[in-house]
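Trying the structure run again after the queue cleared.
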Amino acid sequence: MEDPLPEQMRAAGTALLAALNEPARAAAAYRFDDESARRWLEYRPRARPGVCLADLDVAGRKAAHRLLATALSPAAYAQAMAIIALEEVLDRAEGWRRGRHSGDYWVAVFGDPRRDDRWAWRLEGHHLSVSMTVVDDRVSPAPIFFGANPAAVRHAGRPVSRPLGIEEDLGRELLAAMGPAARAAAIIADEAPDDIVSATRPRVDAPLEPLGVPAERLGPTGRALLDQLVALYLDRLPPELAVREARRLDGRERHFAWAGPTRPGQRHYYRVQSDDLLIEYDNTTEDGNHAHTVLRRPSSDFGEDVLATHHQSPHP
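Done. Tokens:
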């Protein structure tokens, strides 16, 4: 059966550009071969390619959100909207000093989705970056970055907001399910790194050493939890993409690594690695309340897989 997602994404990208006035369209539209703009990942509050959603009218903003929704499952889309809303919460917590705003997210389109066989798009701002590449009607997903600051807002000890809570809880549950030997192998450092190791690099050029414990050294419960953790990140994608990615990774060796204390509320980090898969999670501020997560495909980020296939195929 033909995959409907590329056409849905193409229609949403075309509708977005059509909804923009000329200045906004000029800010949003890039050539596909503008590598510096297309291969971009930045989850900090910095200037970035594209047009700012705050500068668009309602129709333009809705078109941008509809494009974003084609790339995410309903649950992940809800996470993304919660992350965006946290900008206002963080601004209040900082005494309104930095002027953070939930409209400070940018959308960029690379190539012409209406007619090109190669095009891409990204929606990005503080703690959110979603990049999709479409080549010959195949969607290549990644990188996908979700962060949250504050990671949790609580009232009377109960969470009011915790957009990335499942990501933390499932990682802890996996670590707790390990026996002493597996846990000793999994914990690679007493202190967490300052941030995710892949950072904002457009390419993970030097593959990270797969430190930690391999899945084969986990018991049945541990392996099942590791599978659930990988599925949690893949399920950020629409179902058809998540299934395809799971099949692509099926049977490949996986490693899980943890750094930092294991008690909640302290700086901690974990990552999952497999062939062409990198999942990273960190919560590394002093109070352990500022989370970063990323799903990357080190050999296939920004459409490297579909572009390689495209270049190998004959084209008139």
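The CA atoms of residues 204 and 226 lie 23 Å apart. Worth checking whether this holds up in the mutant runs.
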